[in-house]
Amino acid sequence: MKIFVFFCTSLLLAQSSLPPAEQQELSNALAEAGNSTHEFLNALELHLKKYPKTASRFELERAIAKSALETKDNARIIQYGELILAQDPEDLAMLDAVSRSLLVARKPEKVLPYAARYEKSLRSLDNGEKMRWQTRAELDQGLGRALLYQSTANLALKKIPAAVSFAQQSMAANPTPEASRALGMAHSAQNDPDAITAYAEAFVVSQEAERVADLALLRAEWRKSHPDEKGLGDVLLAAHDRAVERGKQRLARLRAIDPNALKSAVGDYVVSGVGGNSLDLTSLRGKVIVLDFWATWCGPCRVQQPLYEQVKERFKDRSDVVFLNINTDEDRSLVAPFLEKNQWNKSVYFEGGLSRLLGVNSIPSTIILNKRGEAASRMNGFIPDRFVDSLTERVQRIIEE
Fold it and tell me: Which residue out of 98, 153, 301, 395 is catalytically annotated?
C-alpha cells in the first residue's frame, strides 16, 4: 500500500496543468499525509472540495478510487468508481469493483447495468486472436465474475430464471464454488432439486473455511426431499468426479495455448526449439541439466559462448549431464539467422516462460537443475577467467549429490 500511495503522489504532483499555487498546496497536503492511505484519501477529498473545478479532477478522482480498491472501501469505490466510469466506461477493473461493491451495498438494480457492461467489454476482448494462456485465464475469470454478479443481482430482485441462467453461464466460463453456490441458491428459490447438485459441487471445490457452511446448505436442501442423509455421499462423489473432469478440461484448454500453462516446476516444462521441435524436460529427469540463458543482442553472451562450449566438451562423455541453450529474445525470428551468421550450435530452445519461473532478470545467466529437476545452482553473469572452472566444479558437485 505504501508503494501505491507513493506512486499516486508522484503522479499527481507531476500534473503540470495545475496552477503553481494549487500544485504547491496539493504537494504540501500529500507530503503531510505521508504513507497513511487514510490521510492520503482525506487530503485528496479536501482538495477536490476546495477546488471543485480543478484541471486534475479526473486524475484525483481516479487516485481516490484506486486507493479505495486497495483498502476495500466500498462506499468510496461506488462514489468515485461511478464518476470514473462516467468518463471511462470500459475501465475493466472499475467495472468489476463497482459491481461487486454495489452488491455488498445491497443495490442489485444498480449492479445489473455495470455487470452487463463488464461482461460485454470482456467478450469484446475475446476476438479469436492468439493470446497468452495467462490472458485467457484472466478473461475467463473476469467473465465468470461478471456473470456471477448478474446472477446474484437477479436473485436479489427475485428474477429467478435469469439468476439460474447467469449462474450456469458463470459456471461454464469459470467454475468456482461461488458460481456453484449461486446456482444452488437460484435453484433453491424455485424449489428445484438441482439445487442439491449445485450445493454439492460448491462443497467439493470450496476452501476449507467455507466447507462447513456449504455442507450446511447442502444438508438443508437434501432434507427438503429426503427423510435422512442416505445417498448423500453418492451425490458428493459424483460432484467430485464432475469437478475433476472440469479441471481437466480447463487445463487442456489452457495447454492448447501453451503446454506450460499452470506449471510451477521447471522440470515439468516443455521448450520449443528454433527448428520447430520441442523438448519435454520431464524426459531428462534423472540427469543434471545446465540451462544457459542468452539473447542475440547480449554482448557478454557472445564472449561467454565459447567458454560454455569448453565446459560442454568436458562432460561430453557423460550421459547424465545435458546442456541446453535457452534463448530469451522477444523476436524469435532473429535467432535462426544469428546462429547461422555466427556459426553457433543450432540446438537452441526458446525460454517459453522459464525466465519468469526461475527469476532470470539478467543475462547471461546459467542455472543448473539437479537430477530431480530442481534448481540447484545459479550464476548471474560470469567472470571470464573463472567461468569454465567454476561451472565445471558446480556441475560436478551436483552430479555427485
Answer: 301
